[in-house]
Amino acid sequence: MPPHETSPLLGSHDNGGSTRKPFDPLGSTRHLLLGSWINILLVCIPLAFVADALHWSAAARFSTSFLAIVPLAKLLGDSTEQLSLKLGQTLGGLLNATFGNAVELIVAIAALVQNHASETEQTAAATLKSLLEDGAPDPADSSLRGLLVLSRGTSIILLLTYLGYLYFQLRTHAQLFEAEQVEGEEEEVAAMDQWSAGAWLVIITVLTSFCADILVGSIDETAQQFIGLILLPLVGNAAEHVTSVWMACKGKMELTIGANFETIVLFVSVMLVNLLLQDGRTNYMEGVMLMSLYLVIALSYLV
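The structure corresponding to this sequence follows.
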């Protein structure tokens, strides 16, 4: 699930959150569970457990676990957002980045554990699978040596670039990332206390892992390609897709675009060099980005 549209990936150096909300587990739970009509599908969670325990048909187990993960994905995003408001922009941004794709990662790990390589390769988890396989190659197999050098070299370059970006954003140019308060705009206030939000974050993650395990275990061999390519990528983002269409119908295009930000980034990324140079001004971070891109390309030709 992607980070909420109002939450920056990494904010300014200010770690102060919003005004602390008193400990109110009942109120926080009510806000979380009654906040959307999609949560009606939460009834599928016990049904999925019953279906797995009683060894119902594969179709029944798949359907119940699939529908159970849809509201869990939304609740995971909601609890992450509420906890982020308490942690401040920097820590909140890191939390959003960590749990932004938690559902997809959990499903991918479940597929890997149960040796469903087909589904994993059809989803974004193919990257994770390739890294895990290349992490311990056969010393006698030299065919993967060049790919392994490229993979590790690119990882090191990207890690150093990210560390440079953190230093740029949190230290030397923090003022560029400070959120500007729009006149008349009210500051977002957390509706859940931090302890309840944190507890629900753990509970939802555990429930999602169990449902994902049932989901992957019920996949029929003949349907692996279709399920891996079509259904699994949708399950973690179903709530965002519904919200995106709903907001578009209401004319709120900013929220619609924000819910599909990853897709937009894929298109915008090809304009990187042009956007960095067209204003006629630059800073060292833009140079670091361009040098990193150059090093990755050079490394790919080297191996």
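The mean pLDDT is 72.
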